[in-house]
Each structure stands twice: as structure tokens, then as C-alpha cells.
Design brief:
This protein has 204 residues and is mainly β. Helices cover 9% and strands 50% of the residues. The protein has two helices and 15 strands. The strands form four sheets. It has a four-stranded antiparallel beta sheet, with no helix packed on it. It is globular.
Amino acid sequence: MKRKAYLLAMLAVTAAAPAFAGYTHITIDPPGTTSTTALGIDGGNIMGCYNYPGGVGSYDFLYNGSSYATIAAPTNEDVMVGPTAISGENMVGTYIHEDSSVWTCEYNIGTASYTMLPNIPGMSLLVLSATGISGNNIVGHCQDTSNNGYCFLYNGSSYTMLSDPLATGTTYAQGIDGGNIVGYYIDAAGTHMAFFTTAAAILH
């Protein structure tokens, strides 16, 4: 009985305590929207996407702690899929071009300007998608017209293709911080295996 009473008392205390006592907790809710998804944060900047009533289209946003800014697609013919990563004042995001190809752009918050990631020399691509950014370095994956998958590191001027030494399938870089990269690869059994590496250790 004492143990049961103790457990009931603990449950009562837990239920009465605020869910975020001692922490800052806010709901990110751009005015007039019906749903929001936060996808990344760096410093005081939070990026994500939202929907308006009726569910017509998804829009990307940047929240700086006090106000929201909507981030439009690079051109009227493009459709933004969503931002994927943020570092300082730079974000990377994926968009679908009018020919249905998938590409990545870098967006600078301070200048509100886009820089398109260039094509990888010698490759005919259907997909070029960034998944992480740190300073000038961007990681992601791409797919050629023969449906072969590749992983890349882009330093702002040139590409280096990445491959985990144990991979028999595609290597996927999912994030980067400084010289450290995380992601996963597909082994001979078809299993996804996570990895952490310094850039120098994985560059091929």
C-alpha cells in the first residue's frame, strides 16, 4: 500500500507540473496559417514551412525570434519543396524546376538573394539536393539520368564526390558541422548503416 500511495503521489506531482517548467517554449505560428513545420535552427534563426487554409501550396519561412519572413521560390516557374539546412545567414533548400528536375539553391538571409548550385561537371542530373550546410561547405546527394545515386561535398566553387569505404550502394551525407560529416550508407546486405567522419577521411 505504501508503494502504491507513493506512486500515486508521484503521478499527481508530475501531472501538476508545467510541461516546460524552467524552459523557454513557444509555438511557431505565422499569422493566417493552418500548419507549420520547423526544419532547422542556427543561432536565433529558425526555418521551416507552413500552409494556408485550403491546403493550396506550401511556403517556406524564416523566423528570427520576433518576426516571420516568407521565402519564395527563385522564379515563378519553380516550386519550393522546403529548406533543408541553415548555417549563419545562409540556408539551402530544394526546389522543383518547370521541367520537373529537382535542384538546390543557397539563400542568403541578409541580402534575400539566391545562388543556384551549379551542375556537377560531366554529369547529367535529374536530382541535386543539399541536406546540410556549414559555412561555405554544403553536402547532399544527386541522381543521374541513369538513376545512379551519388553523394557530394560542395565548397562554394567545386565538388568532391563522397563514398564510405564500406558502402556497396550509395553513401548519403545528411549533415555537416565544420569538417565533420554524418550520414548513412547502404552495405552489401542492403542495410542502412550510419557513419560519422571527418571530411578528410571520406573524400574519394
